[in-house]
Design brief:
Keywords: Chaperone. It comes from Dendroctonus ponderosae (Mountain pine beetle). This protein is an alpha+beta fold. It folds into two domains: 89 residues; 84 residues, PDZ domain (Pdz3 Domain), CATH 2.30.42. 41% of the residues lie in helices and 15% in strands.
Amino acid sequence: MNEPQPDQGAIRAEVLQLISRKDQIEVEMRELAAILSQQNGVGMHEPLVDAEGFPKNSIDTYQVRHARHQIICLQNDHKALMKQIERGLQGYYSASSSDCGMDTQPIRPAARQEFPSFTVAFARVTDVTQDSPADLAGIQAGDQVVEFGSVNSMNFKAITDIATVVQHSEGTQISLKLKRNERFITISLVPKRWAGRGLLGCNIVSI
């Protein structure tokens, strides 16, 4: 008895729905990041009280705490969605190329463009400082950036997009997809303060 084959149309519809939700989450995260920036540039981990333990008058403590909580929740949702999208794309292309005795055709390049491939690099690492967070994460000079957290070639506008993600992810793990020597690798990076400048210890430029 033949096993039922996956419905390519249903998989496509499900993945498109997931991608739509991912895009919505990224918009919400940018809006929340803007709220934090308006509060004297406070990020995800800066203290909200002064040296004497009193709330700072220059920021809206409630608004900042609420935005931070929402960003953390959305980051978790985004990570889970990316995994679902990846599995869905694998199922879609597997279904399109499977031969089950029916009149199936190889998937065409145009069909592959129905979904974002997340294989196009939009930035490049030019140098990495030894013992920096980037170095400890395994990033190397020459690596091309395909995904940096929620930033990818489809929504990347300027190198400041990466800076925004880093600023609001201090102490939080970020997933990076890099292209190195024609191979794709995924690493985890935690932006944090260290002996050198910035939170990463590497220089990234757009390409």
